[in-house]
Write a structure and sequence with these properties.
With 283 residues, the chain is mainly alpha-helical. It has a single domain, classed as Mitochondrial carrier fold. The chain contains 10 helices and no strands. The protein is 75% helix and 0% strand. Helix 4 packs across helix 5, helix 4 crosses helix 6 and helix 6 crosses helix 7.
Amino acid sequence: MESGAAPKPLKAYTAPLFAGALAGLSVDVALYPLDTLKTRLQSQQGFNKAGGFRGVYKGLLTVATSSMPTSSLFFVSYETSKTLLQPLVAPQYTPVVHMFSACIGEVLACVIRVPTEIAKQRKQTYVGSEKRSSIRILVEAYKAEGFRKGVYRGFFSTVARDLPFSFIELPIWELLKSYVKDHNDGQINGLQSALCGSIAGGFAAAVTTPLDLAKTRIMLAEDYAATRKLKIKPILTSIYLESGVRGLFAGVTPRMTAFMMGGFVFFGVYDDSKRMLEAYLSR
């Protein structure tokens, strides 16, 4: 812990639990319209037919109510893994600990994230007049395709997208924070942490855009059984043959912009709130 005396075991999870929830809620609510535009740019039906600039807050409630447990689960897993693994390795292998811990956090977070993404993205690209709740969308997906191919459609493609993302983002964030601390008498404030998160998030988002594109196409497909292309490699191959490298990076600008802004909010809020909670709990 960075401040005060070490809290009791149960309290050690309290700070990342609540700080993660607050960070997740803050970034999702603030940047949701950019995510909607990115999803529509990546939609196979095309940007305008998927809704264009209309209703960019469709699905916000679903995300807002699920981002808190998702982010909490991620950070509790991440911080716990770091705490357990760090004493087992030499200091020069610390980035490997961050990578592995981030991977554990992402896999667990995807258990909540994937059904949420299914409901959210179908709301974002739905242009009919009839209102569809998130629960109804997931029930319809379950009835049509079952649990694995319906509610958890795209689970492995989401994991395949998010693991590389966190594998890149978290170690860069931690590395940048260490650099700041080394040049600032071991101290770092919320703004500095937020800027480190912005750089890390933007870079990771740009690199993993093709994986995000494949995941979006898989989740938006209406009939899983009708096509054999609902796997990452065939989808990316098809997109490349149709549109080249530029097609593989469809939506990269709003995605990168969103994650730079998101990294700033997410990591800034997380570090500040975690620091305050730890100080309070250590009294």
